[in-house]
Pilus assembly protein PilV
Amino acid sequence: MEEKNFLARLSSKGFTLLEVLASITILSIVAIGMFSFFTNAMQYTTYNQDKTVAINIARGVLAYMERLDFTELKQYVESKINNTDSQSFVYLNASDCSADGFPLLGGENDKETNQKTCERALGPAVNNIDYKTRVHIFLVPYDKKAQDELKANPPEQFPASLIEKIRREDEEDGEGAENINTDLQNYLLKVYVIVRWGDRVEDSEWLEGVIADETIR
C-alpha cells in the first residue's frame, strides 16, 4: 500500500513555476537571437540587391551615352554651358530626352519612340522603383578649367567617395589635365553617372568614363 502511494506521489509531480519561467526566458532569448539574425540577413540581402541594381543601371546609362552622336552631344553640352554662367559642366537626367537639341539614338526618325527609349535608358523602372529622379549624369569638358571647377565645387549629388577620388586623381596627375593636347580635348567628354538607391547621398553607386568622338574610337 505504501509503495502505491509513493508511485502516485512521484507520477503527479510537475514543473514548478520557477522552472516554467526559466524555460520561457531561455526560449525568448533564443527566439530574439534568431529573429535578429534573420532580420540582419534580410537587410544585408536588400542592401546588396539595391547596390547591384544601381550599378547595373549606371552601366546601362553609360553605355547609352557612349552610343550617342558625339558631335551633337558636344554641341548640346556647349549650348547648356553657354546659357549657364555659374558652372563649366552640364547636368543631365531623363527629362533631357525631350529637350531641343539633345541627340537621340535613331535620329529624328520616329522621334517620339526614340525619346521613350532614351527615357527608359536614363530613368528606368526596376522592381517597381522609378529611377527617373535617382539617376544623375554629369558631362564635363575635357579641359583644366572644367576639371578644376568640378573639384572645387562638386555637385550636391556627388557622394563623398567620388569627391575623394576626383581630388586624389588631381593630386596624382599634377598638371595632367592642363597638358592634354588641345585638339584631343575637342574629341573627349568626361562623364559621371550616379545612381542613388537609398535616401542619403552616400546611398549611391557611381561610374565614370570618357565619351570619345567616333573618329578616334
Observations:
- The chain is about 50% helix and 15% strand.
- The beta strands are 90-92, 125-126, 129-130, 135-141, 188-196, 204-212.
